[in-house]
Design a protein that fits this description.
Elements lengths: L1 H8 L5 H13 L11 H14 L6 E2 L2 E2 L6 H13 L4 H26 L2 H12 L2 H7 L5 H18 L5 H15 L5 H15 L10 H5 L1 H17 L9 H14 L10 H9 L4 H9 L1 H4 L5 H19 L12 H12 L3 H32 L2 H13 L8 E5 L4 H6 L7 E2 L10 H4 L10 E6 L3 H7 L3 E4 L17 E6 L5
Parallel strand pairs: 3-4, 3-5
Antiparallel strand pairs: 1-2, 5-7, 6-7
Length: about 500
């Protein structure tokens, strides 16, 4: 078993093994899963940008929606220009690339702090956290935020002994770009993480220089540009101001939360969950700090302080959600890996768990998900609907009325933002759908009605002369998971030319 440890982070270990495994876990079958909850925001916003040829004013369901800065959308736009399409794969590629950057960054950081063993071990541990893989395969700003923050800290430790305008500038540019993905957390997290090291042993003295201040200017201009462009190029009817939203979503929400009001103990629960399966090592490493503290190196103490400060910062915020804890995960992993390296037996068990986690997550993300969504899902529904509708007339000639389907349905059907998604009464049964949706009275033979399976029986009674299109997975009980939110469509049976 020592051979396994040697291959992963010992004498025979190579960075290539880590990055190759990461590429498989993060990129293989990346686009197979249906859009998941918040992913529809990025799908809808980027689709709208292409539809309007306006990349400075984000809209969600044709409503101004500037709650996130623009860069996470622009990354997807860039990928789409390269591939010539906008698919789930394109939506998720920036997050997967950010995941790969995070793996490389934690490897470099661990190597710089101690040695190659700590770097590789930290990389393997981070890669085999379930929620790391999950968010790296999800279209959102969260993995971009985590990777950018970690990369900024890594850059600091790589260049801290080479203070100069160029190195400072790159550091601040990384922070600016990260902040343009999700918000000011992209600046706060690296600064708070680095702060204990700067205060150690008078480290701050070497950075008291004018070129440090001048280096902020390029980053400030880069950060400000998208907001300036939004205010000066088009968007005459746009009703939101990006910088105002930054203040509201980051500063106001921190001190006076208007949503996401999780309890004070939220991160005591979710940090261990986000570290799974490595919580079984993190918790004893945490409790051992009292007995180990005097013998810890300055770099080991810095890791602990970084975890503690970040944890306190996020806990003191009035706005708490489980995935807000994600930026703390790499530092908690570093602390765990540092503890594992102190004992050979721990390393052996860690190597075993690493291999088990790799195969388990490969099966879960790269085998089971593709098989499941090959049988069902909104993508399959969209293909079926286009096929049936095109038998009657070309797809582009149809008009659509969206009767409260899931938001992602629009993306898979490639409908324009002008097709409104009418709200429903999902929690109030027995309501007359004609009162909720008077649009049902319009029996224009060019209109396809799209809704949810939960409304199927009522809609069938109201639309007797329409063909029903839905997903039927047949007799396979594994895939035949009844879902009342799955889309359903009604096509006029008799097309009138």
């Amino acid at each position: 078993m020592n051979t396994l440890t040697d291959i992963l982070w010992g004498k025979k270990a190579k960075l290539f093994y880590l990055l190759f495994t990461a590429a498989i876990l993060l990129f293989a079958f990346l686009g197979t899963r249906d859009l998941w909850t918040q992913e529809h925001r990025w799908a809808d916003i980027v689709s709208g940008m292409f539809y309007r040829h306006d990349f400075f004013h984000p809209y969600l369901n044709d409503v101004s929606y500037y709650d996130k800065p623009l860069l996470s959308y622009w990354f997807i736009v860039a990928v789409s220009y390269i591939t010539g399409q906008l698919s789930t794969w394109d939506l998720r590629l920036p997050s997967a690339l950010a995941g790969l950057l995070a793996i490389w960054s934690i490897y470099r950081l661990g190597t710089k702090l101690k040695d190659k063993q700590l770097g590789l071990l930290s990389g393997w541990l981070l890669l085999t956290c379930f929620y790391f893989i999950f968010w790296a395969r999800t279209s959102s700003a969260d993995m971009l935020n985590m990777a950018g923050s970690l990369f900024a800290v890594t850059w600091y430790f790589e260049k801290k002994d080479q203070p100069g305008f160029f190195n400072y500038s790159i550091f601040f540019v990384i922070i600016a770009l990260t902040s343009l993905c999700k918000g000011l957390g992209g600046a706060i997290v690296p600064v708070l993480a680095i702060l204990p090291h700067i205060l150690q042993n008078g480290e701050w003295k070497k950075h008291v220089r004018l070129n440090f201040l001048f280096a902020v200017i390029p980053a400030a201009l880069i950060y400000y540009f998208p907001f300036w462009a939004s205010a000066h190029f088009g968007g005459e009817s746009y009703v939101q101001d990006g910088l105002d939203l930054v203040i509201r979503e980051n500063i106001v929400r921190y001190f006076k939360p208007f949503d996401h009001k999780g309890p004070i103990y939220t991160y005591f629960i979710y940090l261990p969950i986000y570290l799974l399966p490595w919580a079984v090592f993190f918790i004893p490493a945490l409790f051992s700090l009292k007995s180990r503290w005097k013998n810890l190196s300055s770099h080991s103490k810095w890791i602990v302080w970084a975890v503690f400060i970040l944890f306190v910062f996020f806990t003191l915020s009035g706005s708490r959600r489980n995935y807000y804890v994600l930026p703390i995960v790499p530092f908690a992993i570093l602390m765990t890996a540092d503890w594992i390296t102190e004992n050979v037996q721990r390393g052996i068990w860690a190597a075993r768990l690493t291999v088990v986690a790799i195969f388990t997550f490969f099966i879960a993300f790269n085998v089971v998900q593709p098989l499941y969504y090959a049988k069902t899902g909104v993508r399959k529904f969209a293909t079926a609907l286009k096929f049936e509708a095109s038998k009657i007339q070309p797809w582009k000639k149809w008009e659509f009325v969206m009767l409260d389907p899931e938001s992602k349905t629009r993306f898979y059907l490639q409908l324009s933002p002008q097709v409104k998604n009418l709200s429903g009464l999902r929690n109030q049964k027995g309501q007359n759908l004609l009162n909720i949706w008077p649009e049902l009275r319009n029996k224009n033979p060019n209109i396809i009605f799209i809704s949810r399976r939960m409304y199927e029986q009522q809609l069938k009674a109201l639309l007797p002369d329409y063909q029903v299109v839905s997903i039927n997975t047949g007799s396979n009980k594994v895939f035949d998971m009844k879902n009342n939110n799955m889309p359903i469509a009604f096509i006029p049976k008799h097309f009138l030319s």
